Amino acid sequence: MKILPSFLLAGTVAAVVVGVSWHASKIPSGSSPAWAGSEAATVPLQLASDTSGETRPVVVELFTSQGCSSCPPADALLGELADQPGIIALAHHVDYWDYIGWKDPFARPEATKRQRRYAEELGARFIYTPQMVIDGQIDVVGSRRAQVISSVVTAQTTGESLDIQIEERATLATVRIPAGAKPARPATVWMAVFDDEHRTDVRRGENSGRELVDANVVREFVSIGTWDGEALELSVDLADAIAEGRGGCAIFVQEGGVGRILGAALMPLDSGGT
Question: One Pfam family for this entry, by name (predicted)?
Fold first, then answer.
Protein backbone atom coordinates (compact mmCIF):
# COMPACT_ATOMS: atom_id res chain seq x y z
CA MET A 1 0.00 0.00 0.00
CA LYS A 2 1.29 3.45 -0.83
CA ILE A 3 -0.17 6.91 -0.58
CA LEU A 4 -0.47 8.88 -3.79
CA PRO A 5 0.91 12.41 -3.23
CA SER A 6 -2.00 14.78 -2.75
CA PHE A 7 -0.55 17.44 -5.08
CA LEU A 8 -1.21 15.12 -8.01
CA LEU A 9 -4.90 15.60 -7.35
CA ALA A 10 -4.76 19.39 -7.05
CA GLY A 11 -6.01 19.41 -3.50
CA THR A 12 -9.33 17.77 -4.30
CA VAL A 13 -9.21 14.07 -3.44
CA ALA A 14 -6.25 12.20 -2.02
CA ALA A 15 -6.06 8.50 -2.82
CA VAL A 16 -4.60 5.22 -1.65
CA VAL A 17 -3.68 2.56 -4.17
CA VAL A 18 -4.48 -0.96 -2.98
CA GLY A 19 -3.70 -3.60 -5.57
CA VAL A 20 -5.42 -2.40 -8.74
CA SER A 21 -8.06 -0.40 -6.90
CA TRP A 22 -7.85 3.14 -5.57
CA HIS A 23 -9.55 4.30 -2.42
CA ALA A 24 -10.22 7.68 -0.98
CA SER A 25 -7.77 8.55 1.74
CA LYS A 26 -7.18 11.22 4.31
CA ILE A 27 -6.31 14.76 3.26
CA PRO A 28 -2.84 15.65 4.59
CA SER A 29 -2.83 17.76 7.73
CA GLY A 30 -3.02 21.46 6.97
CA SER A 31 -4.38 21.10 3.45
CA SER A 32 -7.75 22.41 2.33
CA PRO A 33 -10.47 19.79 1.93
CA ALA A 34 -12.35 19.55 -1.35
CA TRP A 35 -15.37 21.34 0.06
CA ALA A 36 -13.56 24.42 1.35
CA GLY A 37 -14.77 27.72 -0.06
CA SER A 38 -18.01 29.61 -0.55
CA GLU A 39 -19.68 27.48 -3.23
CA ALA A 40 -22.27 26.16 -0.79
CA ALA A 41 -23.35 29.71 -0.02
CA THR A 42 -23.31 31.00 -3.59
CA VAL A 43 -24.99 28.21 -5.57
CA PRO A 44 -28.69 27.88 -4.72
CA LEU A 45 -30.40 24.51 -4.91
CA GLN A 46 -32.56 25.20 -7.95
CA LEU A 47 -33.73 22.11 -9.79
CA ALA A 48 -36.00 21.67 -12.78
CA SER A 49 -39.67 22.33 -12.03
CA ASP A 50 -41.92 19.29 -12.21
CA THR A 51 -45.11 21.31 -12.72
CA SER A 52 -45.05 20.69 -16.48
CA GLY A 53 -44.87 16.93 -16.03
CA GLU A 54 -41.77 16.81 -18.23
CA THR A 55 -39.26 15.94 -15.52
CA ARG A 56 -38.48 12.41 -14.40
CA PRO A 57 -37.57 10.94 -11.00
CA VAL A 58 -33.81 10.99 -10.45
CA VAL A 59 -31.79 8.64 -8.25
CA VAL A 60 -28.76 10.22 -6.56
CA GLU A 61 -26.40 7.78 -4.83
CA LEU A 62 -23.73 9.19 -2.53
CA PHE A 63 -20.73 7.07 -1.53
CA THR A 64 -19.54 8.51 1.76
CA SER A 65 -17.96 7.75 5.13
CA GLN A 66 -17.95 9.28 8.59
CA GLY A 67 -14.18 8.76 8.53
CA CYS A 68 -13.69 11.15 5.60
CA SER A 69 -13.18 14.84 6.38
CA SER A 70 -14.24 15.86 2.86
CA CYS A 71 -17.63 14.17 3.14
CA PRO A 72 -19.76 16.34 5.50
CA PRO A 73 -20.62 18.98 2.86
CA ALA A 74 -21.61 16.24 0.41
CA ASP A 75 -23.72 14.65 3.14
CA ALA A 76 -25.42 18.00 3.74
CA LEU A 77 -26.07 18.47 0.02
CA LEU A 78 -27.61 15.00 -0.19
CA GLY A 79 -29.90 16.00 2.68
CA GLU A 80 -31.03 19.03 0.68
CA LEU A 81 -31.64 16.90 -2.39
CA ALA A 82 -33.63 14.40 -0.32
CA ASP A 83 -36.10 17.18 0.50
CA GLN A 84 -36.75 17.93 -3.17
CA PRO A 85 -39.74 16.34 -4.95
CA GLY A 86 -38.77 13.78 -7.55
CA ILE A 87 -35.30 13.19 -6.12
CA ILE A 88 -34.49 9.80 -4.58
CA ALA A 89 -31.36 10.39 -2.51
CA LEU A 90 -29.46 7.43 -1.08
CA ALA A 91 -26.33 7.47 1.10
CA HIS A 92 -24.13 4.38 0.78
CA HIS A 93 -21.57 4.35 3.61
CA VAL A 94 -18.42 2.52 2.46
CA ASP A 95 -16.15 0.55 4.77
CA TYR A 96 -12.64 1.28 3.43
CA TRP A 97 -12.21 4.33 5.67
CA ASP A 98 -12.77 2.38 8.87
CA TYR A 99 -9.05 1.70 9.39
CA ILE A 100 -8.20 5.42 9.69
CA GLY A 101 -9.40 5.69 13.29
CA TRP A 102 -13.19 5.86 13.27
CA LYS A 103 -15.39 2.92 12.34
CA ASP A 104 -18.46 4.20 10.55
CA PRO A 105 -21.47 2.54 12.25
CA PHE A 106 -23.39 2.58 8.96
CA ALA A 107 -20.62 1.23 6.72
CA ARG A 108 -21.53 -1.80 4.63
CA PRO A 109 -19.15 -3.95 2.58
CA GLU A 110 -21.93 -4.15 -0.01
CA ALA A 111 -21.70 -0.37 -0.47
CA THR A 112 -18.03 -0.64 -1.34
CA LYS A 113 -18.76 -3.48 -3.77
CA ARG A 114 -21.42 -1.39 -5.49
CA GLN A 115 -19.04 1.54 -5.81
CA ARG A 116 -16.42 -0.76 -7.36
CA ARG A 117 -19.00 -2.01 -9.86
CA TYR A 118 -19.80 1.57 -10.80
CA ALA A 119 -16.10 2.26 -11.32
CA GLU A 120 -15.90 -0.65 -13.74
CA GLU A 121 -19.10 0.43 -15.52
CA LEU A 122 -18.03 4.07 -15.84
CA GLY A 123 -14.43 3.27 -16.80
CA ALA A 124 -12.96 4.92 -13.70
CA ARG A 125 -9.50 3.96 -12.46
CA PHE A 126 -10.30 4.53 -8.80
CA ILE A 127 -13.02 4.86 -6.19
CA TYR A 128 -13.21 7.76 -3.79
CA THR A 129 -15.34 9.67 -1.33
CA PRO A 130 -17.44 11.71 -1.55
CA GLN A 131 -18.75 10.43 -4.87
CA MET A 132 -22.24 10.94 -6.26
CA VAL A 133 -23.56 8.77 -9.07
CA ILE A 134 -26.64 10.30 -10.68
CA ASP A 135 -29.12 8.01 -12.42
CA GLY A 136 -26.38 5.40 -12.76
CA GLN A 137 -24.61 7.36 -15.49
CA ILE A 138 -23.10 10.60 -14.20
CA ASP A 139 -20.11 10.51 -11.82
CA VAL A 140 -19.65 13.71 -9.79
CA VAL A 141 -17.49 14.65 -6.81
CA GLY A 142 -20.20 14.93 -4.19
CA SER A 143 -18.89 18.16 -2.68
CA ARG A 144 -18.94 20.05 -6.00
CA ARG A 145 -22.32 21.62 -5.47
CA ALA A 146 -22.73 23.43 -8.79
CA GLN A 147 -21.75 20.35 -10.79
CA VAL A 148 -24.08 18.14 -8.76
CA ILE A 149 -27.03 20.48 -9.27
CA SER A 150 -26.33 20.81 -13.00
CA SER A 151 -26.07 17.02 -13.37
CA VAL A 152 -29.34 16.44 -11.51
CA VAL A 153 -31.16 18.96 -13.72
CA THR A 154 -29.77 17.24 -16.82
CA ALA A 155 -30.98 13.87 -15.56
CA GLN A 156 -34.41 15.30 -14.72
CA THR A 157 -35.01 16.35 -18.30
CA THR A 158 -33.28 13.57 -20.25
CA GLY A 159 -35.16 10.54 -21.52
CA GLU A 160 -38.35 8.86 -20.39
CA SER A 161 -38.99 7.03 -17.16
CA LEU A 162 -41.01 3.95 -16.24
CA ASP A 163 -44.01 4.86 -14.11
CA ILE A 164 -43.36 2.54 -11.18
CA GLN A 165 -46.20 2.23 -8.67
CA ILE A 166 -45.88 1.04 -5.08
CA GLU A 167 -48.98 0.09 -3.09
CA GLU A 168 -48.57 -0.57 0.62
CA ARG A 169 -50.97 -2.66 2.65
CA ALA A 170 -49.92 -3.12 6.27
CA THR A 171 -46.43 -4.65 6.09
CA LEU A 172 -46.65 -5.78 2.47
CA ALA A 173 -45.96 -3.68 -0.61
CA THR A 174 -46.91 -4.43 -4.19
CA VAL A 175 -44.55 -3.03 -6.82
CA ARG A 176 -45.95 -2.60 -10.33
CA ILE A 177 -43.62 -1.92 -13.25
CA PRO A 178 -45.32 -1.28 -16.60
CA ALA A 179 -44.32 -2.71 -19.95
CA GLY A 180 -41.78 -0.71 -21.90
CA ALA A 181 -38.95 -0.91 -24.38
CA LYS A 182 -36.81 -3.97 -23.80
CA PRO A 183 -33.62 -2.89 -22.02
CA ALA A 184 -30.28 -3.34 -23.75
CA ARG A 185 -29.20 -5.50 -20.80
CA PRO A 186 -31.29 -7.37 -18.23
CA ALA A 187 -32.46 -4.76 -15.74
CA THR A 188 -32.22 -5.30 -12.01
CA VAL A 189 -35.07 -4.19 -9.77
CA TRP A 190 -33.38 -2.77 -6.68
CA MET A 191 -34.90 -2.10 -3.28
CA ALA A 192 -33.11 0.30 -0.94
CA VAL A 193 -34.36 0.64 2.64
CA PHE A 194 -33.01 3.71 4.40
CA ASP A 195 -33.17 5.77 7.57
CA ASP A 196 -34.25 9.40 7.26
CA GLU A 197 -31.49 10.90 9.39
CA HIS A 198 -28.76 10.01 11.86
CA ARG A 199 -26.75 12.31 14.11
CA THR A 200 -23.44 10.92 15.34
CA ASP A 201 -20.86 12.37 17.72
CA VAL A 202 -17.56 11.31 16.20
CA ARG A 203 -14.81 10.75 18.77
CA ARG A 204 -11.87 9.68 16.62
CA GLY A 205 -10.49 9.99 13.11
CA GLU A 206 -10.53 12.95 10.74
CA ASN A 207 -13.92 14.18 11.96
CA SER A 208 -13.13 13.82 15.66
CA GLY A 209 -15.11 16.26 17.80
CA ARG A 210 -17.81 16.88 15.20
CA GLU A 211 -21.47 15.95 15.17
CA LEU A 212 -22.20 14.50 11.75
CA VAL A 213 -25.65 14.56 10.21
CA ASP A 214 -26.30 11.82 7.67
CA ALA A 215 -29.48 11.76 5.57
CA ASN A 216 -31.15 8.80 3.88
CA VAL A 217 -28.63 6.25 5.16
CA VAL A 218 -29.06 2.97 3.27
CA ARG A 219 -29.45 0.04 5.67
CA GLU A 220 -30.53 -2.64 3.19
CA PHE A 221 -29.93 -2.84 -0.54
CA VAL A 222 -31.18 -5.92 -2.37
CA SER A 223 -32.32 -7.13 -5.77
CA ILE A 224 -35.99 -8.11 -5.77
CA GLY A 225 -36.35 -9.09 -9.41
CA THR A 226 -35.40 -8.63 -13.06
CA TRP A 227 -37.31 -6.58 -15.64
CA ASP A 228 -37.15 -7.52 -19.33
CA GLY A 229 -39.59 -5.03 -20.81
CA GLU A 230 -42.76 -6.90 -19.91
CA ALA A 231 -45.18 -5.70 -17.23
CA LEU A 232 -44.02 -6.97 -13.85
CA GLU A 233 -45.64 -7.19 -10.42
CA LEU A 234 -43.62 -7.97 -7.28
CA SER A 235 -44.54 -8.38 -3.62
CA VAL A 236 -42.21 -7.11 -0.92
CA ASP A 237 -42.38 -7.88 2.79
CA LEU A 238 -41.52 -4.72 4.74
CA ALA A 239 -42.31 -6.07 8.21
CA ASP A 240 -38.70 -5.93 9.41
CA ALA A 241 -38.08 -2.47 7.96
CA ILE A 242 -41.19 -1.08 9.62
CA ALA A 243 -40.42 -2.79 12.94
CA GLU A 244 -36.91 -1.32 12.88
CA GLY A 245 -38.32 2.17 12.27
CA ARG A 246 -36.75 2.70 8.87
CA GLY A 247 -37.61 5.94 7.11
CA GLY A 248 -38.33 4.90 3.56
CA CYS A 249 -38.06 2.40 0.74
CA ALA A 250 -36.87 3.19 -2.77
CA ILE A 251 -37.49 0.95 -5.77
CA PHE A 252 -35.66 1.46 -9.04
CA VAL A 253 -34.98 -0.43 -12.26
CA GLN A 254 -31.41 -0.34 -13.56
CA GLU A 255 -29.88 -1.76 -16.72
CA GLY A 256 -27.15 -4.26 -15.91
CA GLY A 257 -27.45 -3.53 -12.20
CA VAL A 258 -25.13 -0.50 -12.42
CA GLY A 259 -26.12 1.12 -15.70
CA ARG A 260 -28.84 3.52 -16.80
CA ILE A 261 -31.76 3.86 -14.37
CA LEU A 262 -35.01 3.33 -16.24
CA GLY A 263 -37.49 4.26 -13.53
CA ALA A 264 -37.75 4.83 -9.80
CA ALA A 265 -40.29 5.31 -7.04
CA LEU A 266 -40.18 6.17 -3.35
CA MET A 267 -42.37 5.03 -0.47
CA PRO A 268 -42.11 6.55 3.03
CA LEU A 269 -42.15 4.17 6.00
CA ASP A 270 -42.37 4.91 9.70
CA SER A 271 -39.81 7.59 10.50
CA GLY A 272 -36.58 6.28 11.90
CA GLY A 273 -33.04 7.32 12.73
CA THR A 274 -31.26 8.51 15.84
Answer: DUF1223
Query: Dmax over Cα atoms in the chain, in whole Å?
Result: 56
pLDDT in tens, 79-91: 999 999 999 999 9
In sequence order, which residues have a C-beta less than 8 Å from that of residue 29 and are 6 or more positions away? none
User: What gap in Å lies between CA 41 and CA 72, rounded to an integer?
Assistant: 15
Neighbours of 94 (CB within 10 A): 29
Query: What separation in angstroms does the CA of 115 have from each of 1, 34, 136, 147, 178?
Result: 20, 20, 11, 20, 29
Q: Which of 48, 69, 65, 70 is nearest to 57 (CA)?
A: 48
Q: How far is CA 64 from CA 23, 43, 200, in A?
A: 12, 22, 14
CA torsion 203-205-211-217 (nearest 10°) is -110
pLDDT of residue 195 exceeding 80: yes
pTM for this one? 0.84
Residues belonging to the chain: 274
Pairing outcome for strands 58-64 and 87-93: parallel
Distances (CA, A) of 210 to 228, 243, 272: 46, 30, 22
Domains of the chain, start order: 2-28+39-268 (3.40.30.10)
Q: From residue 60, how far is each of 15, 79, 126, 198, 244 by CA, in Å?
A: 23, 11, 19, 18, 24
User: What is the tens place of the pLDDT at every residue in 59-76?
Assistant: 999 999 999 999 999 999
